[in-house]
């Protein structure tokens, strides 16, 4: 059985949401950053850098959340992924676009307005947020356009591009990042949120990314 080690972070949500969508059995192990669970010698055998999330499949350690999602999808019989190289590349290009671009900038809001403000008691860096907002303004219309033509980011079926992106977009509920100008992203987000996988996932993350 899969063992997923997570905490309240979007990277952990990606992995659990993907597992739920794929209908795979798993055990969720909640890691407490404040107690240093992620730096314990046992956990460092699973993730050598002591980062969250990570997983084990029959004792085999796997880390990096997008890679975990792809592995889970492949293992499930390629639900949410594809055996066809071209289809797989089309899914991966959106996963990478989220990882290297859109998600990177959404993370700035998460870091500044949740990590810095709530955990470190510091004022969010307005210039960093403004820079992120500028890049998102350039990048989000592309995703909105994809969703104008399709129900999901890569077509009519849900893929790991959706689960990876959704976990990042959840940030808009807890920070000043907003998607009000993107009608199709909003529709997709609301549709993803009523899927049974979301409710099942959020049992492990009570309160979402809110740490009040
Ligand atoms: N690229 C990695 C990021 C993992 C990561 O940086 N996790 C953070 C929390 S979001 C962490 O564990 N930070 C604690 C640390 O680095 O000590 C992934 O997608 O899994």
Task: Give a summary of the structure in a few sentences.
With 212 residues, the protein is an alpha+beta fold.
Strand order of the largest sheet: 2-1-3-4
Oligomeric nature of the chains? single chain
The total number of structural domains is 2
Which distinct ligands sit in these coordinates? glutathione
Q: Counting H and I runs of at least 4 residues, what is the number of helices?
A: 8
Shape-level CATH architecture of the largest domain:
Up-down Bundle
Helix-strand makeup class = alpha+beta
Reading the helices and strands in chain order gives EHEHEEHHHHHH
Low-confidence stretches: none
Query: If you average the pLDDT, what whole number results?
Result: 96
- CATH top level label of the largest domain: Mainly Alpha
Question: Could you say what the CATH topology of the largest domain is called?
Answer: Glutathione S-transferase Yfyf (Class Pi), Chain A, domain 2
Distance between the termini: 34 Å
Quantity of strands, as a count: 4
Helix content: 55-70%
Radius of gyration: 17 Å
Secondary structure: elements and pairs:
Elements: E1 2-6, H1 10-22, E2 26-30, H2 41-46, E3 54-57, E4 60-63, H3 65-75, H4 85-119, H5 126-149, H6 160-169, H7 183-193, H8 196-202
Parallel strand pairs: 1-2
Antiparallel strand pairs: 1-3, 3-4
Residues 9, 11, 38, 50-53, 64-65 line the site of glutathione.
Question: Can you walk through the features of this model?
Answer:
The chain has a four-stranded mixed sheet, covered by helices on one side. With 212 residues, it is of the alpha+beta class. The termini are far apart. It is globular and about 45 Å long. It has two domains: 2-80, Glutaredoxin, CATH 3.40.30.10; 85-195, Glutathione S-transferase Yfyf (Class Pi), Chain A, domain 2 (Up-down Bundle). It has eight helices and four strands. Helix 1 (10-22) packs parallel to helix 3 (65-75), helix 4 runs antiparallel to helix 5 and helix 5 crosses helix 7 (183-193). It has helices at 10-22, 41-46, 65-75, 85-119, 126-149, 160-169, 183-193, 196-202; strands at 2-6, 26-30, 54-57, 60-63. Helix 1 (10-22) links the parallel strand 1 and strand 2 (26-30). 55% of the residues lie in helices and 8% in strands. Bound molecules: glutathione (GSH).
């Amino acid at each position: 059985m899969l063992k997923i080690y997570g905490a309240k972070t979007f990277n952990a949500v990606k992995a659990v949401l993907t597992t739920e969508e794929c209908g795979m059995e798993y055990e969720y192990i909640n890691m407490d950053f404040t107690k240093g669970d992620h730096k314990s010698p046992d956990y460092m055998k699973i993730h050598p850098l002591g980062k969250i999330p990570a997983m084990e499949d029959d004792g085999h350690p796997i880390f990096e959340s997008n890679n975990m999602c792809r592995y889970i999808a492949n293992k499930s019989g390629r639900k949410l992924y594809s055996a066809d190289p071209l289809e797989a590349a089309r899914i991966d290009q959106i996963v990478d676009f989220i990882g290297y671009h859109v998600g990177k900038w959404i993370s700035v809001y998460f870091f500044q307005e949740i990590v810095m403000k709530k955990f470190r008691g510091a004022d969010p860096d307005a210039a960093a947020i403004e820079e992120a907002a500028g890049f998102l303004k350039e990048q989000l219309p592309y995703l909105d356009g994809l969703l104008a033509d399709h129900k999901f980011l890569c077509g009519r079926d849900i893929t790991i591009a959706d689960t990876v992106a959704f976990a990042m977009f959840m940030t808009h509920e807890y920070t000043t990042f907003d998607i009000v100008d993107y009608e199709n992203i909003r529709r997709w987000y609301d549709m993803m949120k009523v899927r049974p996988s979301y409710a099942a996932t959020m049992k492990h993350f009570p309160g979402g990314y809110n740490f009040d």
